[in-house]
Amino acid sequence: MLLLPLHRPLMRATFPVVTALLVVVNVFVYFGWQSGDNARIAEVVEDYAHSRLGEIEAPAYERWLIDRGGRGDAVEEYRDAEDDEARRALVATNALFDPEFVPAMETGRWFPDGATFAEWRTLRPAYDETLGDIFTLRHLLRASEVSPARMVTSAFLHGDAMHLFGNMVFLVVIGLLVEGALGPWRFGVVYLLGAIGASAASLVFHWGDAAGGLGASGAIAALMGCFCLVWGLQPVRFFYWIGVWFDYVRAPAVWLFPAWLGWEVFNLVSRDASSNVAFEAHAGGLVCGAAMGWMLSAMGQVRHEFIREDASNDAAPAGDDRWERAQRHMGRMQLSEADQLLDQLATQAPWRVDVQVARYRVAYNGARAEQANTRAVQALSIDAHDAQAVRLQADLFVELARRNATVPPTVRLALARRCINFDLLDDAERALQDIPADVAPDVQSQLWFELALRHRDAGAQAAHVRCLRHLSERHPMQPQAVKARFLLENA
């Protein structure tokens, strides 16, 4: 299965600088520092299988595995090898990714006698030095070892050129959408933390195994999870390929998260152990990235103007006159016809405040009071990010206040925050008025304090003092109230 969002063309205006830098780094690491490592590792394993070190170390490895209860099915795998040479090659390969092996051998208890142990101690350092010269082995992730450095560096390594190519294609496609929505530095942080999260998931899944991991796919999976939550309900174009079916479709970005995660979990539980694909790292990266995307969205650290740059085109593509027709129907009081068109637009572009306000007016003019109030709250609940939309929400709140309509306190607090951000100070104050003091008092007090400072900066001294007094009286125990009393005393 392949699901790939192809929503934006790569242009100079949207060029993802950090994404491009990550591609360059990954390519440079593979062709610059990893070049030839696979052949060197194969040569080292082959030499070990015919060496005296392998001859004395392999039986000690078996005894160590048996004593510690085995490591997965490693004992059976060792004994099922066709001959001694194959067993030594297996030991050499497993030991590359097992941080516990050499320390265990250094105790000497797994060798038959002191002379054999002494011989091992003379042979092993040269072999370790050879392994240390191989860049990939120094930086890949090793199961059963918590190494913060390797949890990051392994995300810049790749097994072969096709592994690198596939990951870089996904990185460019996802990076274009996520870097544009978050900005360069937040995108970089998500990538690095996603790499750590994916590595952590792989360590948990493989703890106790002799296994290694490398590749950017875990970090890219984190970008994919972040994309789903940051873009949310925004419809995006994506390409899918499932068996013999493939096509381009449009759907909300968040719908891709369960599809991606479900596919990784399905492969994780049904895969062949020899697949060498870290589905657990992909799943861990997806969940980690989704969590970061949710937090960034909740903290307002998302560039909605990039996400909704083509919102008007999404809502009204060329030749689409539904908005104009809906307004004409409203002017003629053809409410049913207007409602049908507006519902279509609201489904296609749920972030459009003007559409939601129009739906409220249709319900109100149709004497559907309960539905009108519900739609009004929906319009006020939109996290608008432009002055015109916030102004429309503020005017709607004034209209509702005149009609004594109920607006939930949490919605009013969010509206007040948006009004303060766009210097609609009187509207912010109206939204904050009469909210019960026990509803999010920390949020209320912070908003009142910010509002007071904005009034002061605007030269409205009376409003500044009024807000400070309201804060000190309504929320006397909040830290902002202490600041308010100080400002009042020194006004």
Description:
- The chain crosses the membrane at residues 12-33, 161-182, 189-208, 214-233, 238-261, 281-299.
- Residues 150-297 form the Peptidase S54 rhomboid domain.
- Its main location: membrane.
- There is one protein chain.
- The chain has 26 helices and five strands.
- It is mainly alpha-helical and 491 residues long.
- It folds into four domains: 2-33 and 157-307, no CATH class; 37-138; 312-407, Alpha Horseshoe (Serine Threonine Protein Phosphatase 5, Tetratricopeptide repeat); 428-491.
- The strands form two sheets. Strands 1-4-5 form a three-stranded antiparallel sheet. Strands 2-3 form a two-stranded antiparallel sheet.
- The radius of gyration is 31 Å and the shape is elongated.
- The termini are far apart.
Question: How would you briefly describe this protein structure?
Answer:
With 491 residues, the chain is mostly helical.
